[in-house]
Design goal:
The chain is an alpha/beta fold and 260 residues long. The chain folds into 2 domains: 119 residues, HAD superfamily/HAD-like (Rossmann fold, 3-Layer(aba) Sandwich), CATH 3.40.50.1000; 95 residues, HAD superfamily/HAD-like (Rossmann fold). Strand 10 and strand 11 form a beta hairpin. The longest helix has 12 residues. The protein is globular.
Length: 260
């Protein structure tokens, strides 16, 4: 644990690490306050493109945790930055929530449902056949297919729900075109996180609850990985993967619980 405490910074997943649904997880407040009090650099990295950093900040505020919006980085932001780096001034047909559209506008990527350069999809509650039909039409016309993240399911308080990987599958099947996913485990997300906090890979640790996105992303980015068992992955699941995290703890509260 001393090696973890010595890190200059932390990149943390959110759901399953910081909160579950609308409930803050045990020990999180103590961990976040320790990072602030000890001038640790940190960013919350989430594969969810549904909320803006300000909305995520307000969500934590409602749970009793005060963290400014500049500590958040989402797959919507990573996706828009990726598209800008590939084709500045491009246009997109977007299936997703307002936060995804805002991230696009912030990078001067504008909406186009006639001849866009890209079709972009993220988690959304407004998923419908008409939008999928339009996306298929546009991809068949030549638009490139982009997913904010490859997650097939998300975990909510009431159970699992379909995530981007599931929602984009009908478009992939109908067009025969595979989507490019920007979010974890794509190392792009962690590189953005490192850039945001201004740290080198050896100086930080990545904390996540999923072996298939968080831990593999850390390993492929040469970052020390910390798996918490407070979310998606159970201890007995670890052996199902051909790789393993550097550290396994019950929750982020374990990092600071024995500090005098």
């Amino acid at each position: 644990m001393d090696r973890i405490l010595e890190k200059k910074g932390f990149i943390c997943d959110m759901d399953g690490v910081i909160y579950h649904g609308n409930k803050i997880l045990p020990g999180v407040a103590e961990f976040v306050n320790w990072m602030i009090e000890n001038d640790k650099k940190f960013v919350f990295l989430t594969n969810s493109p549904e909320k803006t950093p300000h909305e995520l900040s307000m969500k934590l505020e409602r749970m009793g945790l005060s963290v400014s919006a500049d500590h958040f980085y989402t797959s919507a932001m990573a996706t828009s930055e990726f598209l800008y780096s590939q084709a500045p001034g491009c246009t997109a047909y977007v299936i997703g929530e307002a936060a995804l559209s805002k991230a696009m506008y912030d990078q001067k990527i504008y909406m186009n449902d006639v001849n866009p350069d890209y079709v972009v999809l993220g988690e959304t509650r407004t998923y419908c056949f008409e939008k999928v039909e339009k996306a298929i039409e546009l991809v068949n016309k030549g638009a490139k297919l982009i997913g904010c993240n490859p997650d097939t399911v998300g975990v909510k308080e009431k159970g699992v729900i379909p995530a981007t990987g599931s929602l984009i599958a009908p478009i992939e099947i109908a067009t025969g075109k595979k989507a490019y996913f920007v979010g974890k485990p794509n190392p792009l997300m962690l590189r953005h996180g490192l850039k945001k906090i201004g740290c080198h890979s050896e100086d930080i640790a990545f904390i996540g609850d999923r072996m298939d996105t968080d831990i593999i992303a850390a390993i492929e980015s040469n970052v020390d990985s910390i798996l918490v068992l407070s979310g998606f992955t159970r201890a007995e699941d670890i052996g199902n993967y051909p790789y393993r995290p550097k550290y396994v703890i019950d929750g982020v509260g374990d990092i600071v619980k024995n500090i005098k």
